[in-house]
Amino acid sequence: MKLTNLIKYKLNEAVDETVYNNGIKIVSKLKEAGFKDTFFVGGWVRDKLLGLDTAKDIDIATEAKPEQVKEVFKGEHFIEVGESFNIVMVVLDGETFEIATFRSDDYRIPKTVKRIKWSFII
Known about the structure:
By secondary structure, the protein is of the alpha+beta class. It has helices spanning 3-12, 17-32, 43-49, 66-72, and strands at residues 38-41, 58-62, 77-80, 87-92, 95-101, 103-107, 114-118.
């Protein structure tokens, strides 16, 4: 079995259908809007691959910038979370999805100073 097929299989196993379907809607809507590099990421993906059910939120990473995400989801309930981190939360059917723009973090001395710059898929 190819790794991509195994991952798809594992993500479809024991998943809350409503949450998963709303996540698919969000990713699909962003891709249809031209943001082809949009993916499920984070703890939810990790936990599903490990067969765990501990992560309660779904994180999505995209090339779309926050203002573009808000434009795509105009009319939906969304929350701007971390202006410095470029994260927008979209709420569908009471479930919250964090949508983050690709970025790279640069921690320099002193460690409390953090510089964030736009990034692309590596």
